[in-house]
Design goal:
- This protein is α/β, with parallel strands linked by helices.
- Helices cover 41% and strands 16% of the residues.
- It is built from 18 helices and 20 strands.
- The strands form six sheets. The chain has a six-stranded parallel β-sheet with strand order 5-4-3-16-17-11, with helices on both faces.
- Strand 14 and strand 15 (271-276) form a beta hairpin.
- The longest helix is centred in the last third of the chain and has 24 residues, at 388-411.
- It starts with a strand and ends with a helix.
- This is Methionine--tRNA ligase, mitochondrial.
């Protein structure tokens, strides 16, 4: 008997074996260079969320994962404006013991439960304006074909053997645990019960014959992969966490369950007595979506970025890359990891009754408002806290007052009666501060504003590349404040269009402010698509002028013609974003009366 950590695995006589000295290096298994994305890489990008378990209705954590992926995807489309260049998948994970048990408890067939809850996720993502190109369900026929082919690749390479597994299994987390990851806590009766040290969920002792994946042989290749690409897992603390895990023993992994115990899943090819482990099944979804096992998937896979929650890091950063290497493929290009949301300082829990319904929030704060809040306040490196007052304060301050107020000021009939993009006067605002003549009115702070907004698209792009969308939005918000300061400083409402002295400067102030608004609207498209559309439409920006390649900020300042100068503004689009505190106070008064 071969003892590996807390697992007891007994190889069946005649089972295929692979020498521990066999080369499982990245060089041997990779289909191409790893670790560095160079200029030869094509413009394709493929973003994925986790596929979400259908044992319960979606919550804001699920929506947050989807929004992060959606924003990354939409920003890539701004860079490479071609639908064929960007893929984005999400979906539902519908197999496993937990689903089987949840369906039985609800008095439903597993397929009925899956249909019901999967529909809830699809509805939520439609309402939240998630722009995915594919929604996959693991109960689909295309996925079964992909999983069974992937299994066959592992088997053909001698990486699967049948053995006796004896150890702890957590049905809630759908994972096997070594003894070191199990603790005892008082149960409902007061007796000490074994639970997962990490999740706190109950575990049970399991002894059965399963198929085993030779995970232990991939410890060094995984270390080589991660040390060769410090950004493979982002943010950096999670990268270090995985490297620390790999300093420990890496036991072989049971990748099937007895069918008599788990019937709701994909059967092992050629052995109906076994069902494929739910995590192996689920992870292959990322390949299914891009056409695996057909060769078309190869053009997408090197450019794959997974967006996941920190609770499933080990499955995506150790098990999945090892399985991919075993099947002859490279690990994903990036694994972006985010933390969780708490509610008023407490973990969301059904027992506490504090689970936040994301659809209620979308209705209460608007789709764009709640998207903005989650992506502006969510910091991937640590858990973030949700409470209603925080949402209202942020959205009123940054969207209603700062951004909406700026647009209203610059398009108001009293200040801009002609309803056009006014002309920019280069003598009032020359390209260099030292060139300001008698008619020049630009101040040092104005040049700082132009510089800040000119560099904003690059700054935002860098933040997206580093999975810091919250910093991208913080940078935009800072420039919005600067622009409001610019308008407040020069008070265009005090200037007179009829005055030959005032008119050139009045037009210049409005031109600069409108150009800043155009940049903000363009950069906010990945986060607040509907709001950004209304803003850009109000400015008269056509649909073909909204990519990063067409941005060209303040062309006249830099000595180039402006396609917007003299252009009529778009039709009135109403309030850009309504103040929420007034709505809430009205609702409170209505309730009291």
């Amino acid at each position: 008997m071969l003892r590996i950590s807390a697992l007891r695995l007994l190889g069946r006589r005649g089972a295929s074996r692979v020498s521990l000295s066999e080369d499982f290096s990245l060089r041997h298994y990779s289909s191409g260079p790893l670790g560095v994305r160079d200029d030869t890489r094509d413009s394709r990008a493929y973003f994925t969320t986790p596929i979400f378990y259908v044992n319960a209705a979606p919550h804001i954590g699920h929506l947050y994962s989807a929004l992060l992926a959606d924003a990354l995807c939409r920003h890539h489309r701004l860079r490479v404006p071609s639908d064929a260049a960007t893929g984005f998948s999400t979906g539902t994970d519908e197999h496993g013991l937990k689903i089987q048990q949840a369906a039985a408890a609800a008095g439903l067939a597993p397929s009925e439960l899956c249909d019901r809850v999967s529909a809830q996720f699809q509805q939520l993502f439609r309402e939240a304006d998630i722009s995915s190109t594919d929604f996959i369900r693991t109960t689909e026929a295309r996925h079964r074909i992909a999983v069974q082919h992937f299994w066959g690749m592992l088997k053909a390479r001698g990486l699967l053997y049948k053995g006796l597994y004896e150890g702890w299994y957590c049905a809630s987390d759908e994972c096997f645990l070594p003894e070191a990851k199990v603790t005892r806590q008082p149960g409902p009766s007061g007796d000490l019960c074994p639970v997962s040290l990490e999740s706190g969920h109950p575990v049970s002792w399991t002894k059965e014959e399963n198929y085993i994946f030779r995970l232990s042989q991939f410890r060094e290749p995984l270390q080589q992969w991660l040390r060769g690409d410090p950004q493979a897992i982002t943010p950096e603390p999670f990268h270090q966490t995985v490297l620390q895990w790999l300093e420990e023993e890496l036991p072989d992994l049971s990748v099937s369950r007895r069918s008599s115990h788990l019937h709701w899943g994909i059967p092992v090819p050629g052995d109906d007595s076994q069902t494929i482990y739910v995590w192996l099944d689920a992870l292959v979804n990322y390949l299914t979506v891009i056409g695996y096992p057909n060769t078309e998937f190869k053009s997408w896979w090197p450019n794959t970025s997974h967006i996941i929650g920190k609770d499933i890091l080990k499955f995506h950063a150790i098990y999945w890359p090892a399985l991919l290497l075993g099947a002859g493929m490279s690990p994903p290009y990036r694994i972006y990891v985010h933390s969780h949301w708490t509610v008023c300082g407490q973990k969301m829990s059904k027992s506490l009754g504090n689970v936040v319904d994301p659809r209620t929030c979308l209705d209460r704060y608007t789709v764009d408002g709640f998207r903005y809040f989650l992506l502006r306040q969510g910091v991937p490196s640590w858990d973030c806290d949700y409470y209603d007052e925080k949402v209202v304060k942020l959205l009123d301050s940054e969207l209603a007052d700062a951004l909406g107020g700026l647009l209203n000021r610059c398009t108001a009939n009293r200040i801009n009666p002609s309803g056009i993009y006014p002309a920019f006067c280069t003598t009032c605002f020359p390209s260099e501060p030292g060139l300001v003549g008698p008619s020049g009115r630009a101040q040092a702070e104005d040049y700082a504003l132009v510089s800040a907004v000119a560099t904003l698209p690059k700054q935002v792009a860098d933040h997206y590349d580093n999975f810091q969308i919250y910093k991208a939005l913080e940078a935009v918000s800072s420039c919005v404040r600067q622009t409001n300061g610019f308008v407040q400083r020069h008070a265009p409402w005090k200037l007179n269009w009829e005055s030959p002295v005032d008119a050139p400067w009045l037009g210049t102030v409005l031109h600069v402010a409108l150009e800043c608004l155009r940049v903000f609207g363009t950069l906010l498209q990945p986060v607040t698509p509907s709001l950004a559309d209304r803003l850009l439409s109000r400015l008269g920006v056509s649909s073909t002028e909204r990519s990063l390649g067409e941005l060209h900020f303040l062309s006249r300042f830099y000595g180039h013609p402006s396609p917007f100068e003299g252009r009529r503004l778009g039709p009135e689009t109403g309030v850009l974003f309504p103040r929420l505190d007034q709505s809430r106070s009205w609702l409170v008064k209505a309730h009291k009366t």
